[in-house]
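Late entry, written up from scratch paper. The run itself happened at the end of the previous shift, but nothing got recorded in the book at the time, so transcribing now.
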Amino acid sequence: MSEHALLFTLGFSLLAVGAVLLGYGVGQLARRFGVSPWVIGLVVVPLAAAAPVFAVTVNTALQQRDNFTLGMILGSTVVNVGFALGFVSLLRPLTGSSKVVSASISTLLVGVLLFLFVCRDNSVSRIDGVILLVGFVLAVAYLVWVARGETEETKAPFTHWNLQRWPLWIAVPLAIAGLAALVGGASYVVPEAVELTRMQPRGKTHLFGSVAVVLASSLALIWVAELAARNRHGDLAIGTVVGASLCNLLLLPAVAALIAPFGVANVTLMNDIPATALLVYLLLVPSLNGLQVSRSEGAVLLAASVAYLGWQIWR
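Output as recorded:
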């Protein structure tokens, strides 16, 4: 078991490093092609934070491991909203004012209902994947439209990640190295998680899907959100978490279903997805409170995510 645990640890370490390298590499490439720092901070950072989960889920979809695929989709959302945002706001209360961040929360609340809708027949087909993909594109279009009305003062924190322009001979290798680390990390995480699952009582594949998310994706996401919070960029911290969650609930299952349609067990449809939706709807509190996430609210989010994972273990 120690060998499998070691390789599993190596895998999620590669995923965490790959997310950072890919984010910086792609961000620098975008700058070289004239993309504004505001757009890079708004789009590239959340996508880079979601990249580890994306890499692992694509791997599970290719191997047609339905339980792991669902575990990654639902677990990533729970970890992002509950663990990452809760943990960071527990350390440093967050305050935001961005219209696009507020709109992204509303979009996420609709997104989780759309995901529940496509799962209603105990499967996510390629047609469902197209529906989710269209939903993601419409969500992005809506957020871009909202972003046009942001003030320069609100946009400023989103440029926090943009360093001075690097030459292509640095940016390209960084992006390639990040992508390679993500692919390599996923190739270790999935098979080793399967082996570890076989050693567990009752074969809890859903549990290791969640554990893979906690260990593989939360490291990069928490680092990004905590660094933003430390610099008093509440909009960036909240926006990164919500944006990554939106990718996980719409884009991620869309791509997975287009690769290989997957089934949804009754217990997942009746228990796991509603529980995930309930946790996501806790974001109504900061949304209605002017994007304020206090320590007490962070404690509730963190406790909810820990309770979800504990429920997965003991049920």
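The mean pLDDT is 81.
(Scratch paper discarded after transcription.)
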